[in-house]
Every structure is written in structure tokens, then in C-alpha cells.
Design a protein that fits this description.
With about 475 residues, this protein is of the alpha/beta class. It folds into two domains: about 180 residues, NAD(P)-binding Rossmann-like Domain (Rossmann fold), CATH 3.40.50.720; about 230 residues, NAD(P)-binding Rossmann-like Domain (Rossmann fold), CATH 3.40.50. It contains 16 helices and 14 strands. The strands form two sheets. Strands 3-2-1-4-5-6-7 form a seven-stranded parallel beta sheet, sandwiched between helices. Strand 11, helix 11 and strand 12 form a beta-alpha-beta unit. Helix 10 runs parallel beside helix 11. The structure holds NADP nicotinamide-adenine-dinucleotide phosphate.
Length: about 475
């Protein structure tokens, strides 16, 4: 469903009226038009800063120069020394930040690994405060900090936690121009996996992700190829006939995967159409069927990627909720996922398989009338955390994506007022598109997310509920 208000505010009259009345003017987000390229930041001005004792200069510069970024530093910045040291070691060219209004950085990347006290937080203020208004429309701010859970010193842990609030608030400030701010918390040796994560957060592949924190751990082989990273991989997507699932199937295929789309037998026609567009194969099978897990294993062979996307809502206040509405939602959205994975974990997965489950911000914030749905979507978050060590032992990962308000048939069925409120109450003042969820799923399905395991990423434009 199209967002008529957004289109209206981009007309001459609408822009004027919105400005006169102080109404939000949602930006047209800049989304990726194709797959991951080897150099997604080619010639884009990226200004790098850091704490004076920052530790990840080499990893950050290696990743950014590999992405083709035009690298700038601020000559008077007190965190310059470790960046210059790393640049010399790597043979990377840094340019001095030009003075004046005409320099419009596309991204700010700040290495906060050395921020170890409340007073040391001043360093990020000093770097970003004078420059933030010059960030380009659709620009990116990415802060890298140490993961609080791995820090034992009180000052270090406090400062690292403070950065979460900083990024959340900054995301709300810069969202009106389509820009995003996110935080990557780097665990021990996780900096070796920065190349893939930076590609996601600093490119148009993450257009609807802002105000979020992702923890990056160690492990996995260094990546040598970023485009077509799923080439030859076999991927199963449930609920692939339409909406978010169809978009996930398309995006995985874009990165080279051979996709098997699964949906209820009633949707066989729509599924066939969705699969024929991407050269995929359809499997008409209900996720709750007694033989679903067995048929997936026998008909799909060892899977490299499994995306549990099929989901339903059956909203009723708890006092009015009939048991069949509870059972149905619990079984489709959660029970079937657990059952299918149990079987796949026996002998249905290839080594290094990546699983992705679709949660929802409804599982984080809760919604009146959604006790069944909210329970399943919160359950997914705990499930991904619980199963992560098992997948890590196999060289793979399991993560979840929690969509906010996404323009699909599910949300088109909402009452008008709820729909309009749902769309606007986020930092980007608009609903996301299925492709936004598909991009996050594809990131988790690919080696770009090596080092990320057991986590849930909200793709919601920083929805104001549950944040
Ligand atoms: P959708 O348009 O309703 O599509 C869901 C697909 O899953 C449909 O093709 C549906 O088929 C299929 N499906 C339902 N039950 C199934 C079953 N038992 N076995 C196999 N396939 C089944 O929904 P969507 O908006 O794309 O949502 C996709 C996922 O994102 C869901 O898990 C949803 O909870 C989650 N999500 C969506 C939003 C949003 O704003 N749209 C927000 C948060 C989370 P039928 O048409 O036959 O039922």
C-alpha cells in the first residue's frame, strides 16, 4: 500500500503546508538498487574519529578503504594519533577535513573503544557536535564501542552503556533527513569481522535501520568477496508467496542463492509466480503439517540458509480470545519453527548453516489484543539466543529480525487511524518496505554477518514503542 501522506509532502503544495503546520515531512529513503558491490562507498566522503586511546584503527581503516571510501580526518581532533598510526601501517591515504560549509560527509565513523569513563565520553561530543549538521541527507553515523557485557571495570562498562543512549538519541535527531545512527559493540577480537558489518550499516542496504545496537564477536574466516556472497547456497524461506517472504526470497536470490520458497498449499499459485520471477523452486507445504520437517529435509537437501518468515496474527483481547486463536498463532509463529529446526539440526543443515527468524517489535513492546502474537515474537528472541551456541559449534549462526511497521497486506488490513499512527511514530516518519526486512535477513544469511550470533535486530526506523 502506498504512503499517500509521504507523497503529498513531496509535492510543492504539500511541502509548504506541512512546513506551515509543523507536520512531519518524511524523506524518500535511499535504498539499495542492486546487490552488494565490492566498493559500496566508492568516493564517498567518510570522516573517521576516535578516542585518543582507540584500539581498532587498523581494522576500521582496512574495512573502509576496502569499501572504496574517501577517508577524511579532522586535523585538530584529539583522537587523531591512533588513526594516523594505523593509516601509515596500512599505507592508506587520509585527507584532512576541508574547512567550510561545502564539505558534506556521507558518513561519520567513530572508534569509541578507548572510552573508559563518563568524562571520556566528552571525546565523542567534541568530534560530532561541531559536524553533525553537515552530515549529508541519507548519511550514516556509526559508533564502535566495546561490548559492555565483556567489560568488568565499572567506568568502562558505564561509558560503553552510555553510548547506547547517545546513538538512540542521535538517531531521533537526524532521522528527518533520512540519516541513520547505529552502534556496533565489538567483543574480544570481533574487530576482525568489521568489514561485513560496516558494509551493511554504512550502505543503502540498511536504510530503515536506525538507533540500533548489534554485538559483533570473533570467529569465522576473513571475507574476500562481498558481492554474490550466497552464490550456490541453498536457502529455504517460509511464507514466501507474498509480502515480506517474497521479498526475502528475491533478495537472497539477488546475492546468488538458490531459493526454495515454501507456503501453504492454498497459496500454490502465488508461490509459483513469486518463485518463477527469481528462478526459485516452490514447496507447497504448511509449516504446521505433521510431516513438514521431514518433507523439508527430504525435498530440500542440506540447507545453507533457513528463513522462518511465515507468521500470522489473530488479534483479540485476552478476555475474548478463544483457545483456537491462541493455539494457531503459537503453533505457526513459534511451535513449528522449533519443531522444524529440531529436525533440521539432525541432518538437514549444511556445515556453517545460518538460520534467521522473524520476530516483531510487537514482541518487544507488546500490543493490546496481541498476547498470542506478542508471546510468539518475544519467544523467537529468546529462542535465537538459546540456540546460538549450538549453531556456533557448527560454524553457523541464528539471528532474528524484528520488523516494525512494514507496508504489507498484514498492515494494509489495519484500521486507518492505527495504520497512520503506526507509520509515523518512528525516527524516519514512515513505514518500512518488505525490502528493508529482506535486506536485514540477507545480511544475517550471508557471511557479511560473520561474528553476529543469537541477536535480534530491529528494522523499524527506530519505532518509538518499545525502544
Ligand atoms: P503476510 O503478508 O500475511 O505473509 C505471510 C505469508 O506466510 C503468507 O503468504 C501466508 O500464507 C504464509 N503463511 C501463513 N501461515 C502459514 C503456514 N502455516 N505455513 C506456511 N505459510 C504460511 O505477512 P507479512 O507482513 O509478509 O509478515 C511476514 C512475517 O513478518 C511474519 O512472521 C510477521 O509476523 C512478521 N512481521 C510483519 C510485520 C509487518 O508490519 N508486516 C511487522 C512485524 C512482523 P496465507 O496467506 O495463506 O496465510
Amino acid at each position: 500500500m502506498s504512503d499517500r501522506y509521504l507523497e503529498f509532502t513531496h509535492s510543492a503544495f504539500g511541502r509548504q503546508l506541512a512546513s506551515m503546520m509543523g507536520l512531519p515531512s518524511p524523506p524518500h529513503l535511499r535504498r539499495a538498487v542492486g546487490g552488494y558491490s565490492e566498493q559500496p562507498l566508492e568516493s564517498r566522503a567518510t570522516l573517521i574519529g576516535g578516542a585518543p586511546n582507540a584500539q581498532w584503527g587498523e581494522a576500521v581503516l582496512a574495512a573502509l578503504s576496502g569499501m572504496g571510501a574517501d577517508l577524511y580526518v579532522a586535523p585538530e581532533h584529539n583522537g587523531l594519533a591512533p588513526i594516523k598510526f594505523a593509516a601509515t601501517k596500512l599505507g592508506v591515504t587520509l585527507k584532512g577535513e576541508p574547512s567550510g560549509e561545502r564539505f558534506v560527509p556521507q558518513a561519520f565513523v567513530f572508534d569509541a573503544s578507548g572510552v573508559d569513563s563518563a568524562s571520556a565520553l566528552r571525546t565523542i561530543y567534541d568530534f560530532l557536535q561541531p559536524r553533525i549538521s553537515r552530515l549529508a541527507a541519507h548519511g550514516r553515523v556509526l559508533v564502535l564501542s566495546r561490548a559492555p557485557r565483556e567489560l568488568s571495570a565499572v567506568g568502562e562498562r558505564t561509558a560503553a552503556s552510555a553510548l547506547r543512549g547517545f546513538v538512540r538519541s542521535l538517531g531521533k535527531e537526524i532521522g528527518r533527513k533520512g540519516a541513520t545512527a547505529n552502534l556496533v559493540e565489538v567483543g574480544n577480537d570481533g574487530q576482525n569481522n568489521l568489514a561485513g558489518v560496516l558494509r551493511f550499516f554504512l550502505s543503502e542496504h540498511s536504510a530503515f535501520v536506525t538507533g540500533q545496537t548489534l554485538v559483533l564477536g570473533a570467529g569465522g574466516a576473513p571475507l574476500s568477496q562481498f558481492g554474490q556472497s550466497l552464490f550456490g547456497k541453498r536457502a529455504l524461506v517460509t511464507g514466501a508467496a507474498r509480502g515480506i517472504g517474497a521479498s526475502i526470497a528475491q533478495t537472497l536470490a539477488r546475492e546468488g542463492a538458490q531459493v526454495i520458497g515454501m507456503d501453504r498449499p492454498q497459496e500454490e499459485g502465488a508461490l509459483g509466480e513469486s518463485m518463477s520471477r527469481i528462478g526459485g523452486r516452490g514447496l507447497a507445504l504448511d509449516v504446521t503439517a505433521a510431516d513438514a520437517a521431514e518433507r523439508i529435509v527430504s525435498e530440500c537437501g542440506p540447507l545453507d540458509v533457513v528463513v522462518h518468515n511465515a507468521g500470522v496474527t489473530r488479534d483479540k483481547m485476552l478476555r475474548n480470545m478463544a483457545p483456537h486463536l491462541w493455539d494457531m498463532v503459537l503453533d505457526i509463529n513459534l511451535g513449528a519453527i522449533v519443531r522444524i529446526n529440531e529436525r533440521l539440526l539432525q541432518d538437514g543443515l549444511a556445515d556453517g548453516a545460518r538460520l534467521v527468524c522473524i520476530s516483531s517489535i510487537g514482541g518487544i513492546a507488546g500490543n493490546a489484543g496481541q498476547t498470542n502474537y506478542g508471546a510468539t515474537k518475544a519467544g523467537i528472541i529468546g529462542y535465537a539466543e538459546a540456540l546460538a551456541p549450538e549453531l556456533a559449534r557448527r560454524g553457523g549462526a541464528i539471528n532474528a529480525v524484528a520488523p516494525g511497521f512494514i507496508e504489507t497486506q498484514m498492515t494494509a488490513a489495519m484500521p486507518l487511524v492505527n495504520r497512520e499512527v503506526g507509520r509515523r511514530l518512528n525516527s524516519l516518519s514512515q513505514g518500512g518496505l518488505p525490502i528493508d526486512i529482506a535486506e536485514a535477513v540477507t545480511f544475517f544469511a550471508s557471511p557479511l554477518s560473520t561474528g553476529v550470533n543469537g541477536q535480534t535486530l530491529r528494522v523499524c526506523g527506530q519505532n518509538f514503542v518499545g525502544a
